[in-house]
Specification:
Layout: H1 6-25, H2 30-37, E1 42-47, H3 59-70, E2 74-78, H4 86-95, E3 102-105, H5 108-113, H6 121-124, H7 128-131, H8 135-140, E4 142-143, E5 146-147, E6 150-162, H9 163-168, H10 180-190, E7 198-200, H11 206-214, H12 233-247, H13 257-260, H14 268-273, E8 277-283, H15 287-293, E9 298-302, E10 309-317, H16 324-333, H17 338-351, H18 364-373, H19 377-384, E11 390-391, H20 400-406, E12 408-413, E13 416-420, H21 421-429, H22 439-456
Parallel strand pairs: 1-2, 1-3, 7-8, 10-11
Antiparallel strand pairs: 3-10, 4-5, 6-8, 6-9, 6-10, 12-13
Helix pairs in contact: 1-17, 1-18, 3-17, 11-12, 20-22
């Protein structure tokens, strides 16, 4: 992956932004400024884990300043009391009747269970910017036909490919939309332990994405139609594929210490950075790091089958806010709103800051502006496939943490007398147990935890 040269990136985005706004900017008019100045002064509070320190003055803090400059009647105060364990801090604020007006939300179901979240239907229903959010993302923040959260900091999950490694081995470079069979062949063919090259970094993500890649009617970790389908052939085949990769030493994490010692790096991240891994599982939040530090040609290719796996942060607006419209305007500016995101790109160039997160808007002008400074081909294709995208559900599905990882199974595995779901699945990937012997039990348990999570939010 090659980035535009800095001077070209700066020139391109400035020309683009000027071209998009020239006709309207000259008239934005004295009347609008006058109208803004006549509005009553309002102060809203904001809590976010992404603000860094005041001395660092990261892009998020700069954007708060930009918002206040654009809307001078609104003052935004940062609520520094919300820190540490995020949910505990918000709970304490709610108990003291001191909830911030706008806040980052660790999990939407937690916000619903605690009755923190404002019904946003009236604010969003006629908002053109909200309509530009992909439907699958809007749906993820909607419960019982009520919009309760706003997407912030969108990212995609999937595989990154070392294109140079495949080209040097005279192998076809995997591309976005590659089939499951191509994935398996790519991992197998590129692996050469004697030369310090391995197919993938780790196999444990495979059971999460495999069912959705094999069957478009199934979601992440088989969740679809309000239930898990872990007893499906697709999920069992995903476990068995991961086991096959482990047993054939196609993944770095499955190698012995002696085998890993022959690689250039002490962990899978270092081995990838040194050019010793064909495919690496990661999120697009890694793109700034990869752009700055990788010395080989690379691309984002997502998951086999081409469905886009979407990971969002979310913002909530407090049910107790006295300034709902101003809070929404601010939240939108900081997240999916066209005005705010276009200014974010411009400020990033002016201030030499990294834009963390992808646009949560599918507005063509927003995407064009973003891809003027980010020329990653696979990423553009991922956006084109958002209609069939899937949400990684850890922040949206009730009880997901229990259903995917933490619920105890009552099964003894290794040194654990009562392995949780994650440990049981890990043992099956390593070949210590047969998944078929336990899958009905796991499926029933996962669905039980989902139902308990729904009950906690009154569904």
């Amino acid at each position: 992956m090659k980035m535009l040269k800095p001077w070209l990136a700066i020139l391109t985005i400035i020309v683009f932004l000027i071209g998009c706004s020239k006709d309207t900017a000259t008239n934005t008019s004295k009347d609008e400024v006058k109208e803004e100045g006549n509005k009553d002064a309002v102060t809203i509070t904001f809590a976010s884990w992404a603000l860094g320190t005041e001395e660092e003055r990261n892009l998020e803090r700069i954007m708060i300043e930009e918002f206040q400059a654009q809307y001078p009647h609104i003052t935004v105060e940062i609520d520094e009391s919300i820190s540490g364990d995020w949910n505990d801090a918000l709970s304490a604020a709610a108990s003291a009747n001191a909830m911030p007006d706008v806040f980052m939300l660790a999990q939407i179901p937690t916000g619903l269970a605690n009755d923190w979240l404002l019904d946003l239907n009236e604010l969003t229903e006629n908002d053109e910017d909200f309509a530009q959010i992909p439907e699958v993302v809007r749906d993820s923040a909607t419960f019982e036909d009520t919009v309760v959260a706003l997407p912030k900091g969108q990212n995609f999950l999937g595989y990154f490919v070392n294109k140079d490694l495949y080209n040097q081995a005279n192998l076809n470079v995997p591309e976005h939309g590659f089939a499951i069979e191509e994935f398996v062949n790519s991992v197998r063919q590129i692996t050469n332990l004697n030369n310090g090259v391995v197919g993938i970094s780790n196999p444990h993500s495979i059971p999460d994405w495999y069912p959705a890649a094999a069957n478009e009617n199934i979601g992440w970790f088989t969740f679809s139609d309000e239930e898990y389908h872990l007893d499906s052939n697709e999920f069992i085949n995903g476990i068995n594929l991961a086991n096959n990769i482990v047993s054939n030493n196609y993944s770095f994490d499955s190698l012995t210490d002696d085998q890993q010692a022959s690689f250039n790096g002490e962990n899978d991240g270092e081995v990838w950075a040194a050019g010793g891994t064909g495919l690496r599982w990661d999120g697009t939040w890694a793109i700034p790091n990869y752009t700055e530090n990788l010395e080989f040609d690379w691309d984002f290719i997502g998951i086999p089958g081409g469905r886009t796996v979407i990971v969002n942060d979310y913002m909530g607006i407090s049910k107790s806010t006295k300034h709902a419209e101003e809070a929404y305007l601010f939240a939108k500016y900081m997240s999916f709103g066209k005005e705010g995101y276009m200014r974010r790109l411009e400020v990033a160039v002016e201030e030499d800051k990294v834009v963390n997160g992808l646009p949560a808007s599918a507005d063509p002008e927003v995407l064009d502006a973003y891809f003027e400074i980010q020329d990653l081909p696979g990423l553009r294709i991922a956006y084109e496939n958002l209609e069939n995208g899937i949400i990684e559900p850890v922040k949206t599905v009730p009880g997901y943490v229990q259903s995917r990882w933490e619920a105890p199974t009552g099964v003894a595995v290794g040194e654990s007398p009562n392995a949780n779901i994650s440990e049981l699945l890990g043992a099956s990937i390593r070949g210590e147990i047969k998944i078929e012997d336990y899958i009905s039990q796991i499926n029933e348990l996962a669905n039980q935890k989902y139902q308990e999570g729904k009950e906690a939010i009154g569904q």
